[in-house]
Amino acid sequence: MNRIHLSIFVLLILALLQGCACLFDTGSAACSDPEVLMCGLTKCTIEMFLCMLEPACREALECNAECSSAGAQAEQQACNLVCQLAQGESNERYSALVQCFAENGCLPTLPDGTDGRCLVTSENILNVYVLESLDELEGTWLETRGLNCGVPGSGWEGGYDALPCRASSWIYYAQQWWYHTSFCAPAENGSCSEEGPVYLIAEPRISDQIPGLLEVIYANPPLQPQQERWYILSKPDPDWIMYNYCGSTPAGEYAGVNVMTRAPEASDAAMPPEVEAAFQQAAKDFNFSYEDMCITDQTQCPPLTVEEDVQDWVDGL
To answer: Nearest Cα to 101, choosing from 191, 13, 219?
Structure first.
């Protein structure tokens, strides 16, 4: 699920249609890779043509093109993901083009094992916390730590857990549970960019086949389908949780680990010592380094609009 590659094919499309060798220097050979372009030309010809005819779709592609200056690779991936969500929601041709590239294998993916991994196995699944009801998760949780931080060579290179202002909310509306997750593309100082947060909505359900498995099926992802398997690695306090998510889209598989809290002060520094000790033990139980987790700063985040977002989504169905 390496979303930086979306910018690669965007550049190649624009280069072809505008007669440019490359819109900017990415510092790699990817800009001249003919395979991505030829794949799109042969398998998504109509979608490419229709997108370039529509100004709004071209503007959406420009959003991706601008991500090359967003900083490190993980930050560029975050920028591209925000473009997909923000632009795809409002432009059907752009969304169709991205989907076509993904479904036809035109989006290059990270090598296997470099975009996170699912930590739960048949040997350690008995250590997973088993939810009795989604009532236990009700409310909004803010991230304080994450493992998929985009560090090269770490095996967790997607960078999703390092996105600013990551939040997860569980809300009961219209006779069912909904999951709402929001995040931002990073500004230069690491805070939420001026575009503000984007969000995904999903339908969660507790598995009746595998104890400890929480299934999260997204309703409005940039690439259809997108689904995740969640395992709670530790829940030593009603307001603190550590979980491993293992997901997939047509572009590939990804995974991460989050530490979340719904305590009044959402910061790593405010974590009770006994909670941190439990999380450190969970890291040992599931074979990863707690110290490798990046810390999230929630102090400069904009207000959330969870209830409104969910209601607008459900009422629009």
So the answer is: 13
